[in-house]
Amino acid sequence: MTASSVTSSAPICVASTQRGDEAGDASLDSHSQRTPSTACCTDESASDTNYVKSVEWTPDGTTLLTNSADHHIRTYILLVYVIILTSCRANNSLRPPDLLEERPSPHPLSPYSVLPSAEPTYATAIYPYYSLQDPSTTLFLSSVRDHPIRLASTLSPTLLATYSLVHPTTEAFITPHSIIYPHALGGTHFITGSDSLICLFDVSRPGNDGPVSWMPTIPSKRKQTVGGGVGMKGIISAMAINSTGDGILAAGTFSRQVGLYDSNGTGQSLGTFSIAKTDASRRIGGRGITQLLWSPCGRYLYIAERKSDGVMIYDIRVTGQLLGWLEGRKAITNQRMKVDIVSTNQGTSHEIWAGGTDGFMRVWRDPTHTAGGQEPEWEWKIHDGTYYLFGLL
């Protein structure tokens, strides 16, 4: 289905960091009921050399957290409560816009808070019980190259705590390439993934104590080749815990391997498998895993890669069994282009939504119902640029 055939479902741009007439043309017809509203997430200082590398919604759906090429993390508060206006900012001129207010054109957005860094940020993770109504919960983690892991607030550019991850022999900082702050651990612990290593941290133990658990994904550093011995070698570039509560952690690497671990990543290995040299790899390509998503039922694992034109689907009930793949994603880039899951029919089914480098958004319905390759069922044009970043509220 082409973009022109779904004009009636086109999203409404309710907010943008573009200014003036540039934002005015982004307001579309207001008759869409099915599609979530979207915000154009380009930083205020964006240019050819400063672009948004990642963007995340906070769990309460009020705030966006962006990481940009200029090494700055910015927060944009989109939905605001009176308690925040009175307790955090006495100056009304700094009040963030409320997207529920009707306007003839998109709201102009400016960062509420900016956290600078001297080095690139590799990964971020938001506190799972984040609520703008309780400023003590507005926390996020970030890993910066050659620095300790940082804990900060989205409301103020001030570090609240740091957590050291140091190589035991070289004493150099290990920078995680992936961090998750899962509900399953009650907000008291977070998990990091780095080179052939998964670590568990206790939030209440900042400083130089390091993680409470170290789990190498290969039994020995002497096993230098991929597949040399039990386990997997490579940078842990993506992680996800099964949403059904069985405590299985899926971890993926830039070397195109996936490992499954019990006890929320602190237990034994349940198995590893490679996604290279498969029918899916030959059809859609891929140069390293950048995102893992569990299906709502917890039976299937979606795998997104850089330099890939689609998303792989694996049946985890049989470790390493390829079910199928989604085609036509248009994501042949080294950027981490995300996908998202949307529940439909009161949670009995779901869809995969993804953006492409051509500025289109695409949707695959009931992707686990068909084996082999699947083309998107519908798509629409968002804008003329690359739609690198994606997240649904």
Please explain how this structure is put together:
The structure is a single chain. With 393 residues, this protein is mainly beta. The longest helix has 7 residues. The relative contact order is 0.09. The N terminus is likely disordered.
Outline the secondary-structure elements.
Elements: E1 13-16, H1 21-24, E2 38-40, E3 52-57, E4 63-68, E5 73-77, H2 82-88, E6 107-108, E7 113-115, E8 121-126, E9 139-144, E10 149-153, E11 156-163, E12 178-180, E13 189-194, E14 197-202, E15 213-216, E16 236-241, E17 249-253, E18 257-261, E19 269-274, H3 279-284, E20 289-294, E21 300-305, E22 311-315, E23 321-326, E24 339-344, E25 349-355, E26 360-365, E27 372-374, E28 378-381
Parallel strand pairs: 1-2, 1-6, 23-27
Antiparallel strand pairs: 3-4, 4-5, 5-7, 8-9, 9-10, 10-11, 12-13, 13-14, 14-15, 16-17, 17-18, 18-19, 20-21, 21-22, 22-23, 24-25, 25-26, 26-28
InterPro entries: SWT21/TCAB1_mRNA_Telomere (IPR051150), WD40/YVTN_repeat-like_dom_sf (IPR015943), WD40_repeat_dom_sf (IPR036322), WD40_rpt (IPR001680)
Region (Disordered): 1-44
Biased composition (Polar residues): 1-18, 29-40
